């Protein structure tokens, strides 16, 4: 197991390198630059900016600089948020995104697995129908609709919760963003769980366990659920990475100080270094979570072995 | 998970029905799934054939009817016509002496201190409420004109959008595009994802390692730049939409199928197949993929809405469908911007979208049950 | 990290309790007067040299104070300088600095600070975003180009309290530039001590009515009253909290929930509903922004003036203003917007006052001469614009007008903002493109100079008319303000006649200001310094 983890860690190095390289060049092929505003800058100003940020040098040289600096942990200054470095921006936003993302993941995962299991156990009942209906709405109604609707109801209509802002980070501020973030995840987990649970309940070993007269709860939890969790766990890897790096929609709707905006808005602003920093962070998270998922496979289903 | 042994079980010949027939039979018995098929078919017909039965074109701008709410009544409402006439004469810089309507006809008298340019009647035809305006009588040496014309009756059952275009027609058009995009892009991601995931998981070892690292790389690439660069190099082609969406949406599918495969390949029946000397490809095709079908179908019902909504983000970046064309995703995101002042712009397209996806879910469940050999 | 706080009702209750007690505390400390302002985006920097966006300057001008500044009605008022005089030839400005002007660390603001700050702004090594606005100062442009050392700048401290600024040539609008965000002073000791991290809460030394206290990205920026400010007794607010609101609809919801007292930049489509709900709290006033379409003169047939004029004539700008912009914008037939007192009424295009039907007939005639439209060749036109709901609506409406008038087939091509303007600025070819202009200082030159044939980045359509260039050149050397203004008007008329630029609308400033906010005045320059605002309970 340790050998397996070590090997995966090693293989992360070339993965990150490829991600960084591809992203670096991909970004530079896009039209516009960090200083392409609606009101253009005069040539002198542009030249000064390009020189200051070394953007006037040959692309390959910029690339060499970038990789060299990144290796020692220097991800450069942000081209748009000019007072800050990329490391500072990500460092200050990440805790917020982690907090929001982990709550949403927890809510989505626990909620999704629970309701999915219930729906599977009561297949074709009213509960099943209700769970799947809510789940369908969770998947089809996008968060840029869910968020505003929740705000209109709970912040403006009923005035129970704030309409936005992080405030003191207490539950009243986090409730709506967490729900908005978690709902689509919960819906996907519920669907995956229900589907695989129905199959698992029909599987031989579960039938056998039932036939032996084991209590239903034991059958469900000990036998059926373990196998049924596989697709849920598979999906959890990338979805956790996405949740932890924030969501641009949720952050702009609720004024959350996370890092989700940097990936999309940074790209729209052509803030090359900031996007690079975010890309590398996402890559690291994806790698880590996929590794965790692969380890979880082995725990859930002893037949899965890593050779 | 079901045992593949039973998928390839020799039950079929004795009953005299193929597996496919059995599945189809089971599917037909599933009332929810069948009803959903009907609903989905109706939405599809509405989208593709509807435009032949409505009087509006998707890009026809009715400048008199900007952002009007849905109504079963014909427009214009008679009560508003006087105000319309007043605003017309203001633009024509004359005064309205008299205005009346009778049935489908209207008549008006306009006057001015100096002779009126007979072209002024064009102001009446410019608006969508009136048509065929003509001068009935010239009085006062041309200072006063008596006009008559007909009322132009229009129906906007779902209301109009912020440009004055019929929302129902646009939902039909949006449906055409979203159904096609949702179907094709999901098929692309389904095809690539299942094959890739099954291969990676089954072959395992170094191949799996490399294939999964490639997925991690694709997960991390900055999507916005990917899209922008694709647009720059290949222009705005419709095909590019499927490629771009397919390129990102197959990743989850591949991870899920690989996870299933890792568990499946240690099962007895795979060992048996290996012992029988089946090639890797044959095992993947006959034993691995059929056994992942349950999770795959469930996940497809997740991918389709994601794909349709992702398309609206592509439109934002200049890929995707371009105005004046539209899609459900674009209509929903436009509608979300005005959900308080013009809620119908969100409610109608969202309703079609949600109902279509509801049906798809039931069909998915039905298919899964039908293909599940344990549920006979 | 309150990871589990959602799942634990006890903690949730505790949180409620805390917020309740916070409310009580707020009630008891009523003396503190707080204004919560929404701004349209996160500021990119707190260093004035690195700012360039409108909402950044709102913050800058609250934190720093220049020689002169704007009051709440958009008028120039004394700032750090209590008075100033000009030489007879209008090329030398002498500012007399007030002796009681202080930095937030208690040291005096001197003429040397301005010398340092302006040199820094123009030094190429600073890589300032908007140094162009200070180019009228002697040698400024050469310094910014790196052709001259920064100490050659025409800014000199006569003594601690007298500052002399020499200009290249008479520049009648110079005082507006002295009030611009690019002329704000920064504290030398602060920069030398903290380097690139000087503009941080707790570190930044500033001389404005407020000082920077706290910044949580995308959540809030808190400014507190600067007690060292010379006019602190007239600053009524204790705190100003700026909240960046990128999402326009979200900003309206924050206002509706009464969490923010003033917002700007919300969708005009909401005006009807908001007016009904909030009455006078909704404020629409004319701005200096003109939205236009530009034709690429490098592309036939758009090099044909008849075709351009015909296309412009059939556009029903009243419809755009009324139905697309919900009356928040006004039809525009000129490059400049009204509202610059020294310039007066802008010069409209010759067909501006004709009735719509006359224009349509004329346009058909012209189009026939050009050889297109009914009876002529068909034409496919592509309109490029940056993605936004109103841009798309306007383009859709214009496409339908051209289609109806001439039967042209019009396609729309949207790109994200950076791609759209990046493409135009890199000289990409197009047919018709959307852009807008807001003069950065109250002078027609700010806008009209962008269409000189020597301009390669701003002049998207590659307008090239020697007569126009000559008129502008003459305006630079003209000392008599009325002759200069007449020359600029002539240039504008010419630009309008040629219709390389087809103005569409004069956009409005949209604000929602809670009734408890006092001291807010609509003004075309859209200047709303917090110094003049107060909150009544």
UniProtKB/TrEMBL annotation, chain A:
Where does it mainly reside?
Answer: membrane
Pfam families per UniProt: BPD_transp_1, BPD_transp_1_N
| Ranges in a coiled coil | none
In terms of superkingdom, the source organism counts as: Bacteria
The residues that cross the membrane are 100-121, 141-161, 173-192, 232-254, 274-300
Subcellular location per the Swiss-Prot or TrEMBL entry:
Cell membrane
Q: Supply the CDD domains for this chain.
A: TM_PBP2 (cd06261)
Q: How does it sit in the membrane?
A: Multi-pass membrane protein
Extract the signal peptide range: none
Which residue ranges does the record assign to the ABC transmembrane type-1 domain? 94-297
Family statement: Belongs to the binding-protein-dependent transport system permease family.
Q: What is this protein called?
A: Oligopeptide transport system permease protein
From TrEMBL, chain B:
* Compartments where located: Cell inner membrane; Cell membrane
Looking up InterPro entries in the UniProt record yields: BP-dependent_transpt_permease, MetI-like, MetI-like_sf, OppC_N
Coarsely, its chief localization is: membrane
Q: Which Pfam families match?
A: BPD_transp_1, OppC_N
The UniProt record lists the ABC transmembrane type-1 domain at 175-364
List the membrane topology term(s). Multi-pass membrane protein
The protein's UniProt keywords, in alphabetical order, are: Cell inner membrane, Cell membrane, Membrane, Peptide transport, Protein transport, Transmembrane, Transmembrane helix, Transport
* Membrane-spanning intervals of the chain: 32-54, 177-197, 217-248, 288-308, 344-364
The UniProt family comment states: Belongs to the binding-protein-dependent transport system permease family. OppBC subfamily.
* PANTHER family named in the record: OLIGOPEPTIDE TRANSPORT SYSTEM PERMEASE PROTEIN APPC, OLIGOPEPTIDE TRANSPORT SYSTEM PERMEASE PROTEIN OPPC
Q: What name has this protein been given in UniProt?
A: Oligopeptide transport system permease protein OppC
Q: Which organism is it from?
A: Aminobacter niigataensis
UniProtKB/TrEMBL annotation, chain C:
Subcellular location as annotated? Periplasm
Where is it predominantly found? periplasm
Name of one Pfam family that matches: SBP_bac_5
The signal peptide, as residue positions, is 1-31
Residue ranges of the Solute-binding protein family domain?
75-458
- Please give the InterPro entries that the UniProt record associates with this protein: Peptide/Ni-bd, SBP_5, SBP_5_dom
Keyword annotations for this protein, in alphabetical order, are:
Signal, Transport
**Taxonomically, which superkingdom?**
Bacteria
- Protein family: Belongs to the bacterial solute-binding protein 5 family.
| Name assigned to this protein | Oligopeptide transport system substrate-binding protein
């Amino acid at each position: 197991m340790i050998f397996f983890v070590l090997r995966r860690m090693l293989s992360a190095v070339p993965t990150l390198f490829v991600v960084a390289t591809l992203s670096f060049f991909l970004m530079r092929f896009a039209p516009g630059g960090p200083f392409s505003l609606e009101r253009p800058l005069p040539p002198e100003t542009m030249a000064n900016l390009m020189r200051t940020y070394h953007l006037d040098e040959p692309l390959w040289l910029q690339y060499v600089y970038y990789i060299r600096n990144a290796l020692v942990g220097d991800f450069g200054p942000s081209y748009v948020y000019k007072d800050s470095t990329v490391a500072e921006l990500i460092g200050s936003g990440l805790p917020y995104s982690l907090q929001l993302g982990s709550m949403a993941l927890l809510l989505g995962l626990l909620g999704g697995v629970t309701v999915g299991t219930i729906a599977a156990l009561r297949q074709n009942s009213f509960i099943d129908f209700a769970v799947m209906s809510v789940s369908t709405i969770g998947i089809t109604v996008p968060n840029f609709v869910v968020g505003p609707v929740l705000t209109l109801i709970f912040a403006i209509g009923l005035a129970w919760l704030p309409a936005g802002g992080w405030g003191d980070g207490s539950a009243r501020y986090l409730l709506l963003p967490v729900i908005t973030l978690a709902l689509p995840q919960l819906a996907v987990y519920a669907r995956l769980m229900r589907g695989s649970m129905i199959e698992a309940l029909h599987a031989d070993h579960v039938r056998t366990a039932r036939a032996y007269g084991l209590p239903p709860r034991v059958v469900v939890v000990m036998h059926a659920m373990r196998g049924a969790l596989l697709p849920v766990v598979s999906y959890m890897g990338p979805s956790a990475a996405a949740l932890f790096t924030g969501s641009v929609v949720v952050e702009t709707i609720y004024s959350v100080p996370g890092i989700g905006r940097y990936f999309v808005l940074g790209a729209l602003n052509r803030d090359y270094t900031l996007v690079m920093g975010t890309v590398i962070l996402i890559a690291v998270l994806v790698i880590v979570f996929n590794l965790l998922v692969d380890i979880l496979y082995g725990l859930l289903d002893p037949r899965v072995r890593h050779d | 998970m079901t045992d593949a042994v039973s998928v390839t079980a020799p039950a079929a010949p004795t009953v005299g029905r193929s597996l496919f027939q059995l599945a189809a039979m089971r599917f037909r018995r599933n009332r929810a799934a069948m009803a959903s098929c009907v609903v989905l078919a109706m939405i599809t017909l509405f989208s593709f054939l509807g435009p032949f039965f409505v009087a509006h074109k998707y890009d026809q701008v009715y400048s008199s009817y900007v952002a009007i709410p849905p109504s079963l009544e014909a427009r214009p409402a008679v009560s508003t016509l006087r105000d319309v006439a007043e605003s017309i004469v203001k633009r024509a810089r004359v005064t309205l002496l008299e205005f009346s309507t009778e049935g489908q006809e209207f008549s008006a008298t306009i006057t001015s201190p100096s002779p009126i340019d007979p072209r002024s009647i064009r102001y009446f035809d410019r608006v969508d409420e009136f048509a065929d305006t003509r001068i009935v009588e010239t009085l006062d040496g041309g200072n006063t004109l008596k006009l008559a014309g007909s009322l132009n009756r229009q129906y906007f059952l779902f209301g109009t959008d912020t440009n004055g275009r019929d929302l129902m027609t646009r939902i039909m058009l949006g449906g055409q595009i979203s159904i096609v995009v949702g179907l094709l892009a999901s098929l692309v991601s389904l095809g690539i994802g299942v094959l890739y995931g099954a291969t990676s998981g089954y072959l395992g070892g170094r191949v799996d390692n490399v294939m999964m690292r490639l997925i991690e790389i694709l997960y991390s690439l900055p999507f916005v730049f990917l899209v922008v660069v694709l647009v720059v190099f290949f222009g705005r082609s419709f095909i590019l939409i499927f490629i771009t969406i397919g390129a990102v949406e197959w990743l989850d599918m591949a991870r899920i199928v690989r996870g299933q495969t890792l568990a499946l390949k240690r099962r007895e029946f795979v060992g048996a197949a290996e012992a029988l000397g089946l090639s890797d490809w044959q095992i993947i095709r006959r034993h691995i993929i059929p056994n992942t079908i349950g999770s795959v179908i469930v996940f497809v019902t997740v991918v389709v809405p994601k794909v349709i909504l992702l398309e609206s983000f592509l439109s934002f970046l200049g890929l995707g469908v371009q105005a004046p064309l539209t899609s459900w995703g674009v209509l929903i995101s436009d509608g979300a911007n005005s959900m308080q002042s013009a809620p119908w712009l969100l409610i109608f397209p969202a309703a079609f979208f949600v109902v279509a996806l509801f049906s798809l879910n039931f069909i998915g469940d039905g298919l899964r049950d039908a293909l599940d050999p344990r549920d006979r | 990290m309150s990871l589990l706080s959602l799942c634990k009702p006890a903690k949730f209750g505790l949180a409620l309790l805390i917020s309740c007690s916070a409310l009580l505390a707020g009630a008891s400390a009523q003396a503190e007067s707080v204004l919560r302002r929404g701004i349209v985006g996160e500021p990119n920097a707190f260093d004035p040299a690195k700012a360039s966006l409108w909402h950044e300057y709102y913050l800058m001008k609250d934190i720093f104070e220049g020689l002169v500044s704007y009051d709440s009605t958009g008028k120039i008022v004394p700032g750090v300088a209590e008075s100033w005089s000009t030489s007879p030839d209008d090329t030398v400005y002498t500012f007399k600095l007030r002796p009681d002007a202080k930095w937030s660390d208690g040291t005096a603001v001197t003429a040397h600070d301005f010398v340092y700050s302006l040199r820094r702004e123009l030094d190429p090594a600073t890589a300032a975003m908007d140094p162009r606005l200070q180019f009228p100062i002697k040698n400024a442009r050469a310094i910014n180009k790196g052709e001259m050392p920064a100490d050659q700048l025409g800014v000199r401290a006569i003594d601690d309290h007298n500052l002399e600024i020499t200009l290249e040539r008479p520049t009648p609008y110079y005082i507006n530039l002295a009030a611009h965000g690019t002329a704000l002073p920064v504290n030398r000791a602060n920069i030398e001590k903290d380097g690139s991290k000087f503009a941080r809460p707790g570190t930044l030394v500033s001389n404005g009515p407020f000082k920077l206290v706290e910044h949580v990205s995308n959540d809030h920026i808190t400014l507190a009253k600067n007690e060292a400010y010379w006019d602190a007794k007239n600053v009524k607010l204790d705190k100003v909290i700026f909240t960046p609101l990128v999402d326009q609809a979200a900003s309206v919801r924050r206002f509706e929930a009464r969490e923010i007292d003033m917002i700007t930049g919300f969708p005009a489509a909401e005006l009807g509903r908001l007016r009904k709900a909030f009455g006078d709290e909704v404020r629409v006033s004319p701005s200096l922004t003109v939205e236009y379409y530009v034709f690429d003169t490098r592309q036939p047939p758009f090099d044909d003036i008849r075709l351009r004029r015909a296309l412009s004539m059939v556009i029903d700008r009243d419809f755009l203003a009324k139905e697309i912009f919900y009356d928040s914008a006004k039809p525009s037939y000129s490059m400049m917007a009204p509202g610059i007192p020294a310039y007066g009424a802008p010069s409209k295009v010759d067909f501006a006052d004709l009735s719509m039907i006359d224009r349509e007939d004329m346009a058909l005639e012209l189009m026939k001469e050009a050889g297109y439209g009914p009876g002529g060749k068909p034409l496919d036109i592509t309109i490029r614009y940056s993605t936004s709901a109103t841009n798309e609506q306007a383009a859709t409406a214009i496409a339908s007008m051209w289609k109806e008038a001439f039967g042209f087939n019009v396609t729309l091509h949207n790109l994200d903002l950076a791609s759209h303007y990046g493409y135009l600025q890199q000289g990409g070819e197009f047919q018709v493109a959307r852009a807008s202009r807001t003069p950065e200082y109250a002078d027609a030159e700010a806008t009209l100079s962008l269409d000189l044939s020597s301009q390669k980045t701003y002049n998207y359509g590659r307008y090239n008319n020697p007569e126009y260039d000559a008129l502008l050149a003459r305006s630079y050397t003209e000392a008599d303000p009325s002759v200069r203004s007449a020359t600029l008007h002539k240039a504008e008329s010419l630009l309008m006649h040629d219709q390389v630029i087809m103005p569409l609308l004069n956009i409005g400033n949209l604000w929602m200001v809670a009734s408890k906010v006092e001291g807010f005045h609509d003004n075309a320059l859209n200047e709303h310094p917090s110094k003049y605002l107060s909150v009544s309970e």
